[in-house]
Amino acid sequence: MTNEEKIALIEETLDIESGSLNPETELLSVAEYDSMAKLSLIVLCDENFNKKLSGEQIRAFVTVGDILAFLD
Amino acid sequence: MGKFENKYILITGASKGIGFTLAENLDNLGAKLILHASSEDGINKLTESFANKGHLIFRADFSDPLSLEEAWQSQINQDIKLDGFVNCVGLRSRRPLNLLKPAHVMNILHANVASFIEMCRLVCRKNGFNPGLSIITISSIAAHSGGPGVTAYAASKAATEAAVRCMSKELFKKEVRVNSLVCGQVNTEAYSDLMETKASADDVILERQYLGLGSTQNITDILLFLLGKESCFITGSSIPADGGYLS
Ligand SMILES: NC(=O)c1ccc[n+]([C@@H]2O[C@H](COP(=O)([O-])OP(=O)(O)OC[C@H]3O[C@@H](n4cnc5c(N)ncnc54)[C@H](OP(=O)(O)O)[C@@H]3O)[C@@H](O)[C@H]2O)c1
User: Fold this and answer.
1) What distance in Å separates the CA atoms of residue B126 and residue B123, rounded to the nearest whole number?
2) Between A39, A56, A58, which is nearest B94 by CB?
3) What does the domain layout of chain B look like in residue ranges?
4) Domain limits at A9?
5) CATH number for the domain harbouring residue A22
6) How far is residue A47's CA from residue A39's CA, in Å, rounded to a whole number?
7) Cβ(B142) to ligand 1 under 6 A?
8) Which of A2, A6, B88, B129 has its CA 20 to 30 A from that of B39?
9) CATH number of this structure's domain B8-237
10) How does pLDDT run across B18-61, given as a tens digit for each residue?
C-alpha cells in the first residue's frame, strides 16, 4: 500500500476531509484527532494491518508521518 | 464438608479472570464443576489447573450460538442436574460508531446475549437441574452509565439484564433464580489490555469507582453468596458490585 493510500485510509477512518492530511501534518493541529479518533486508529491498525497499537505508541505520534512509519 | 459439596455448577468462561477465581473457590468448597472455555489455551489451562479433580470440561464457541445445543448434548452427560450456572463470557468491544459495522455488532450480540439465553434454555430443560438452581450472569456498569466507544458492549450487557428480568419471572415456578451481577472495573487481563490501549492516560474510571479497582475475589465472594441458599429471596435483580461507580 502506498503512503497516499494509507493517508486516504486514515482520513476515512478519522472522518476527515480527503486531501487534508500529508506526512508533515502535526497531529495536534488536527481538530478531529481526539480520543475517539485514536480508538479508530487502533481498530484500523488491527483490522487492516494486523498490528497492535498501544496507548504508549499513540502518545509518541507527533506527525501523520509517524503513523505511516508505524504502518510500514 | 465444603459449602458446595457435591453441587454441580457450570461456569462458562472459566479459563480467565473472574470465572477462573470462581472455579478455584468452588473447587475448594467441594463443588463438582463443569468448566467452559472456547480456545485451546483456555481448555489446556483448565485441564492443567484442575487435573484429577473430577471436574468436567466443556468447549464451545459463544460466537456461534447455533452450535451450543449440539456441543452441550455431545460433551456433557445429560443426566447431570445443575445447582448453579455462572456465565462469565463477555466479549469486549471498543470502537467508535463510524467503525461499528453490523458484522462486529452481531458477533458481540451473538456471544454476549444469544449464547447466554441459549445456555439458559439448555440448562433449564426438564430434568436438567435441581430445584434451587441459581443462574448468574456478569454484566457491567457500561450497561447503566455507557460511554463513547462501548456502544455494542453496553447494549449487549443491557440486553442480558433485560433477559434476566424476564427469565426470572418465567422460571420461579421451577424454583430457579436468575440474577445479573453488575461489575465495575476488576483487575483482570482484560482490564490490563484496556489500560494498555487507552489512548490517553485516564483515571476517570477509578475516580468514579471510589473503592478502587476490584479484585476477582471481591466478585467471587458475591457470586458465592448468590449461588448459595442465603440469597434465596433475590431474583430478577441487577446487583451492583461496582466499588461505588454507579452511586
Ligand atoms: N474485568 C473487568 O473489569 C470487568 C468489568 C465488568 C464486567 N466484566 C465482565 O465479566 C466477565 C468476565 O470478564 P473477565 O475479564 O474476568 O474475563 P475475560 O478475559 O473476559 O474472559 C472470560 C472468558 O471468556 C471466554 N471466551 C472468550 N471468547 C469466547 C468465545 N468466543 N466463546 C466462548 N467463550 C469465550 C474466555 O475463554 P477462552 O478465551 O479461553 O476461550 C474466558 O474464559 C465478562 O462478561 C465481562 O464482560 C468484566
Assistant:
1) 9
2) A39
3) 8-237
4) 3-71
5) 1.10.1200.10
6) 12
7) no
8) B129
9) 3.40.50.720
10) 999 999 999 999 999 999 999 999 999 999 999 889 999 999 99
